[in-house]
Amino acid sequence: MTSERLLRIAVPNKGALAEPAAAMLRAAGYRQRTDSKDLTLIDTDHDVEFYYLRPRDIAVYIGRGDLDLGITGLDMLLDSGADASEIMQLGFAESRFRFAARGGESMSVADLNGKRIATSYPGLLQAYLDRESVTAELVKLDGAVESAIRLGVADVIADVVDTGTTLRRAGLELFGEPICTSEAVLIQRNGGGELPPQADALRTRLTSVLVAQNYLMMDYNVELSKLEATKQLAPGVEGPTVSNLAKEGWCAVRVLVPRKGAHLLMDKLYQAGARGILMTELAACRL
Ligand SMILES: Nc1ncnc2c1ncn2[C@@H]1O[C@H](COP(=O)(O)OP(=O)(O)OP(=O)(O)O)[C@@H](O)[C@H]1O
Ligand SMILES: O=P(O)(O)OC[C@H]1O[C@H](OP(=O)(O)OP(=O)(O)O)[C@H](O)[C@@H]1O
Ligand SMILES: [Mg+2]
């Protein structure tokens, strides 16, 4: 690929985003660092330079225009107040940003007036409190926020929740609606001019990885007389590929199926007469 300049992409270097972000870029055909002490890496085949940065700092670099595109969490982007926006959802590091208090306190958002709230996301929290007309004292912590109540520095916390295990272990209970629902996103500076053509190529490739994650390839053999019934069950995107089979009166079918419910579909296809059914993972898929 030839371009005037390298496309500069910020990739999280630590935390919940780092591994899945690198894995997704690898799946999209890009080189990624193999040594976690490397700060940058140039993929010369694609004219892309990756910068490995703290996830929290990524929106700042993108908002200032120092780098072209970045991968970060939506919650971190909103918290930063940076002049940047999400241009693509990436489907990993899904979490909710929520309030929690000591078990049995049955708090509500209206009770937060005058309380001390510990958080690592003060920007996100303050914007929510302003919207709800709540006045509270924010206690800014870097992490392990769940310990703040036991240690007496806060009455309530607002933190990232995934499985809820960390909260439960700290004896805390959620209350109120989620303040924010987050996942990893690709971000770009607002009104940030034209990017080199590698940016579109990157988005197309990431989309093909996401599509591949949502579909499986299914192959099966079926008697010609039963083909219509199996086609109805699994119509595919533009109709299945039907090929000859050496066995007289039979055919081989290949079709893309949604990953969700694929095993149930396999059962139904078998009942409808399909045999030798195979399900295969896709590495990438452009529809
Ligand atoms: N346990 C989790 N499950 C899913 N997503 C998570 C989890 N923890 C954090 N996240 C999400 O990942 C992103 C980065 O958060 P993370 O906690 O990894 O950053 P950090 O706290 O700056 O890094 P570190 O924890 O290494 O200091 C955020 O968008 C957050 O919502
Ligand atoms: O609901 P769970 O599945 O338990 O996950 C949520 C926890 O994961 C993150 O912590 P992290 O490991 O990033 O540590 P940190 O608090 O120091 O940032 C987050 O801040 C919560 O503490
Ligand atoms: Mg964290």
Automatic annotation (TrEMBL):
Molecular function GO labels: ATP binding; ATP phosphoribosyltransferase activity; magnesium ion binding
Subcellular location: Cytoplasm
Any GO CC annotation of this UniProt entry: cytoplasm
EC number, UniProt record: 2.4.2.17
Pathway assigned to this chain's UniProt record: Amino-acid biosynthesis; L-histidine biosynthesis; L-histidine from 5-phospho-alpha-D-ribose 1-diphosphate: step 1/9
Enzyme class: transferase
ATP phosphoribosyltransferase catalytic domain mapped to chain residues: 54-193
Catalytic activities: 1-(5-phospho-beta-D-ribosyl)-ATP + diphosphate = 5-phospho-alpha-D-ribose 1-diphosphate + ATP
Cell inner membrane listed as a keyword: no
Gene Ontology BP, a term: L-histidine biosynthetic process
PROSITE patterns, per the entry: ATP_P_PHORIBOSYLTR (PS01316)
Cofactors demanded by this protein: Mg(2+)
Function of the molecule: Catalyzes the condensation of ATP and 5-phosphoribose 1-diphosphate to form N'-(5'-phosphoribosyl)-ATP (PR-ATP). Has a crucial role in the pathway because the rate of histidine biosynthesis seems to be controlled primarily by regulation of HisG enzymatic activity.
HAMAP family assigned: HisG_Long
Protein name per its UniProtKB record: ATP phosphoribosyltransferase
Organism: Tessaracoccus flavescens
